[in-house]
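input
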Amino acid sequence: MLPHHVTVGPPDAPALVLIHGFPFSLEQWRPQLDGLEDAWRVVAYDLRGHGRSATGPGPLFIEDLVDDLVELLDHLGLESACLGGLSMGGYIALRAVDREPSRIHGLVLADTKAGADDNAGRVKRAQAAKTVRAKGMSAFADGLLPALFPKERLDPPTSAVREVRAMIEATSPEGAALALGAMASRLDLRERLADIRVPTLVVVGEDDTLTPPAEAEALVAGIPDATLVRLDGAGHVSNLEAPDAFTAALRAFLERMHPRT
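output
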C-alpha cells in the first residue's frame, strides 16, 4: 500500500526517509524536513491509519509496514536510502535493514529498541487497542502523554506536547489499534544487530522513560558502526523536544556518509 508522503530538497541529493512514531504522522518530522532541505532529499510519510494514509484491512504486522516502505522507495525511484525511524518507526527501520539490506545505506534509530514485547507488554497493547476503539483518540492521548513527556512539560503543555496531542487525536482509532497489534507481534532483533553493516546514528532523549538511554546504549553496543547522541532536555519524542540538536546530529551524520566537496 503506497503511503501518503512528502518530499523536500534537491531531487538528485542523497535521500533520507523518515518513519514517524506511534500514533503520530509525518508532521512529527516537520523540523527536520525544514532543517535539512537545503542539501538533502528528505522524505517523510504517514504509516497506515495515521495522518493521510489509508488504514487498510487488519490484522497488521511490521512486515506489512516494511512492504509499504519498499513500495514507497520503488515509487520514488530510490534504489537505496538512509532510513530513520523514531520509536515504532525504529522498529520498522530495524526490520527493514534486516530484511532488505541492499535498499538501505545508512540508519538512524531514535528513542527505540531492538527487543520485542514480553507477555505483559503484549497484554498492555491489547488493552490499549480496546481503549482506542471504545473511547477514541482523545482519551487515549490523556493516558499516553504522561508516558511520552516528563510531568513538568505537561502542565502547562509545551509546544511539543501540543503538537503530539494534535497528531494523536488526528489518528484513526482503528489505525492505532492495528498498529498496537503490529508492535505486539514484532520480532526480537537483538541478535541481528551485529549483522547491520551500514553506518548507524542512535539518538535518545536523556529523559526518555519508554525507551531509556540504556536501550540506546544496547543498540550501539550491538551494531558494529554505530554512534550515540544523547539529547539533554528531551524525552521520548526527542526530535520535537530538542529539534535543533536533533537536526544538527542528523546533518553531521549525513555529511559523514556523503561528504560535500
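quick obs: The chain has a mean pLDDT of 97.
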